[in-house]
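can u pls check wat happens w/ S-adenosylmethionine
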Amino acid sequence: MSREPPSGKRLRKSLSHVGGAARFSGDERLRALLERAATPGDEDERALTHGFHPWPGRLHPHTARELIAAAPPGLIADPFMGAGTVPLEAMLAGRAAIGNDLNPIGVEVAWVRTRRFSPAALSALVARAKAVTKKADRLVADGARVEPGFQDRVGRWFDRQALVEVWAHARCLAEGDPAWPGSPGDPLTRVLRMALSSILVKASRQVSDSVAKLDRHEPAPSPPGRIGHWLRKRVSELAGQLGALSERVEREVPEPILRLGDARVAPEGAPPIAAVVSSPPYPGVYDYVTHHALRCAVLGFETGAITAHEIGSRRASERLGKAVAHARYVEAMGAVLASWTRTLAPGGFVALVIGDGQIGTNVVRVMPLLERAAEASGLAVRAIVSQARPTFGPARGEGRGAHKEEHLVWLEPPRLVAK
Ligand SMILES: C[S@@+](CC[C@H](N)C(=O)[O-])C[C@H]1O[C@@H](n2cnc3c(N)ncnc32)[C@H](O)[C@@H]1O
C-alpha cells in the first residue's frame, strides 16, 4: 500500500506508547476516526480496573473505546487480549465480547477485571484478603519453611523475607481450607491470586515487568509484613474499582467470553463478529512467557503452551533468523486474521495496534509482513496512522533510517468494484 506524505499532525499521546507526529495514509474517510483513536485525551488510563495488573504492550483504553464505538452491531473480538482491555471496554460500551489469549495469567486477569460483584461480595473480598494475609503472616511468624520445590523455582528472585511471605500467601491461596472455599476455582480466591500476581514483580528482584532479568543492584531487604500489606491495599483499591464497574455496566450486558487458546484458531460457532480490535505481538519485541515466568512459577500455572506457540517472540526471532522468523510471523498472523474474520458481520472491520520489531540491531518493518498476512487471509489494509518509536540501543533500519514505528491499522474485506 502506498504511503502519503506525513500529515504532520502532533498527537499528544498515542497507541501503547506516548508522543510523536502522526503520519496518515489510506482512505481519507477513516482519517478522523483513526487519528482520534490514536490520541488519548487526559482521561485516566488506570480508571476502573484498567490499572489493576501490569501487562507489557497494553492497549490504551481510549484507543479500544474509539474503535469499538465504530463497530456495527455484533460481537467485539480480541484474539490477543492480554490482560483484557478490549473485553472490558466492550462491556463498558454495552457490547458482547470475546477475548482470547494463550497466557493463563492474562485470561485470569481479564476475568477479574470484568467481574460485576455485589457490594456484599466486595466486602467479603476485602475481608477475605485480611484473613488470608493474617493466616500467611502467622505461618511466617511460626517459622514455617519454604517448600524446597518453591525455593528451587523462584528462590533467586526474592530476598529471604519476601520469599517466605510470597510462598506463604501463594500457599494459603492454593490450598483447600475448611475455613473458606479456598480452591483456585472459588471466585474470591481467583481474585486474590491475581492480586498477588499483580504485586509479584514489584516485590521481587526482577528488573521490571518487561525485563525479566535479575536486578544487579541489591535492593533494601523487605520489611516483615510487606506482601500482606501490599495485597490488602491492592484488593481494597480493586474492590472500589469493581464497585464502580458494576454501577457503570447495565445488568443486561452479557459477560464477555474469555478463552485460553491459540489465536490462530477462533472458537467454533461464535456469533458474527462486528470488529476485531486487537494489539498482536510485534515481531521480535517481547517474550511474554518470560515476562510472566515468575508469576506462573509462584502461582503454579503451566507455561508449556505459551512457550511453544507464542507468536513473534523475541527468543524465536533471534534463534530462527530474519527470513524464517518473518515467514513464520506472516503465516501465523495470516491464520489469525483468516480464522477470526470467517464470520465478519456486514460492515465489520479489523483494527490493530502493531509495531515494528527489532532482531539484534535490525529493525523489522511490520507493515510489509502484515500486508502479506492480510492478503493471504482475504483482507486489505485500508488506512494506517503511524508514529515513530525509539529503538533498543544501536539499530539499522530497513528503508527508513533506524527508527521504529507503531501503527494503528484498519483492515477490511476487499470491496466489490462495480464494473
Ligand atoms: C500486545 S499484547 C496484548 C495486550 C492487550 N491488548 C492488553 O491491552 O492487555 C500481545 C498478547 O499476545 C499474546 N499471544 C502471543 N502469542 C499468542 C498466540 N499464539 N495466541 C494467543 N495469544 C498470543 C501474548 O500472551 C500477549 O498477551
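Residues 55, 57-59, 80-83, 85, 100-103, 106, 262-263, 279, 281, 288, 309-311 surround S-adenosylmethionine (CB under 6 Å).
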